[in-house]
Every structure is written in structure tokens, then in C-alpha cells.
Design brief:
188 residues, mainly alpha, 7 helices
Length: 188
């Protein structure tokens, strides 16, 4: 059974280690994507597939530990499921071209950005110090979706890997920031 909503500084302090682990994992995965952008074709699809699958699973676990309930929990789980499903699709049914990868990434960035914006707005009174950063992260994902979409179908594998890496790195840093700033007694 999930804990009650909204998230409080006490809940963040209690789950600080889980937030720290999730933030570090996402940041490392993001750096991996940033430093390996030149891979093309099926290789980049597999890497992005694993990044999305692991990132989606990590987001699902963090949604569980966050204590969200109702539509807010479903929104978090929906974004996590979308990322994991996109990753699984790229891993087990690669098409060998940038079009599929581009479409998957645009959908992922857009869904992730919209979910972060919605959660930020819902959390603005619970933890005032966190919500602007979550909102900014959501807006960044929406901007990345537009950036990838506007270059479609001319996206090179390195550009797509770089955009995914930036998104995951920023999300990881945001989670670490929440773990250490949002859980402090001065956050509320």
C-alpha cells in the first residue's frame, strides 16, 4: 500500500537514500548517453532502449516510494511505463533506422515533460522549494521534444543520444537536489 499524498519534507528525509540512488543512476545513465552520441543505427537504438527501460523502471520505483495516490500516482506510473515500454520496444523490435527512435524519443520527452509539469503544479504548496525546479525540468523535456521533432527526419544518432542524455542527467540532478534540499528542515 502506498503512503499518503502530498509528499512532505519528512517523507523525503525518510526516503533520502532511495532518492539519492535513483538520482545517481539517472545522472550516470544520462552521462553515458552524452558521452556516447556517435553510435548510429541499431547500436543507438539498443543503448537508448536500455536507458529508457532502466530509467522507466527507476521512475516507477520512485513513484512507489514517493507516496503518491490517485491520479497523481497513475500519472507517475504512466510516465514510467511509457519510458519502460519505449525502451522494451527499441530493444526487442528494432527497425534499424532513426525514424522509429525519433518518434519514440519525441513521445517520451513530451510525456515526461507534461507529467513533470503536472506534478510540479500539484506539489507547489507541499514543498515550495522543489516545485520550480521540477517545473523547469518538465519544460526542458518539452523543449527537447520540440528540438528532436523539428529536426525530424534529419536526426543523426548522436543528436538523439545527446538529447536523451541531457534529459536524464537533468532528471538525476533534480532528484539528488530534492533528496538533499527538499528534505532539509528549511525547505518548507
Amino acid at each position: 500500500m502506498m503512503r499518503s499524498f502530498p509528499i512532505t519534507t519528512d517523507k523525503i528525509r525518510q526516503s533520502r537514500m532511495a532518492y539519492t540512488i535513483a538520482g545517481v543512476i539517472l545522472a550516470i545513465l544520462g552521462l553515458g548517453a552524452i558521452f556516447a552520441p556517435a553510435m548510429t543505427g541499431q547500436a543507438i537504438e539498443r543503448i537508448v532502449g536500455w536507458l529508457l527501460l532502466l530509467g522507466g523502471l527507476t521512475a516507477g520505483v520512485m513513484t512507489w516510494f514517493s507516496g503518491r495516490e490517485g491520479w497523481k500516482a497513475w500519472l507517475g506510473f504512466g510516465g514510467a511505463l511509457a519510458a519502460a515500454a519505449a525502451g522494451a520496444l527499441l530493444l526487442w523490435a528494432p527497425v534499424g533506422g532513426g525514424d522509429m527512435l525519433t518518434s519514440v524519443l519525441v513521445g517520451f520527452f513530451a510525456a515526461s515533460g507534461l507529467a513533470k509539469v503536472a506534478i510540479a503544479v500539484a506539489q507547489r504548496t507541499s514543498i515550495p522549494v522543489i516545485w520550480p525546479w521540477l517545473l523547469a525540468s518538465g519544460i526542458l523535456d518539452i523543449v527537447l521534444a520540440v528540438a528532436v521533432l523539428t529536426r525530424f527526419p534529419f536526426n543523426a544518432g548522436w543528436f538523439l543520444g545527446l538529447m536523451l542524455g541531457v534529459s536524464m542527467l537533468c532528471s538525476g540532478v533534480l532528484i539528488l537536489w530534492i533528496a538533499y534540499s527538499g528534505g532539509s528542515r528549511h525547505a518548507a
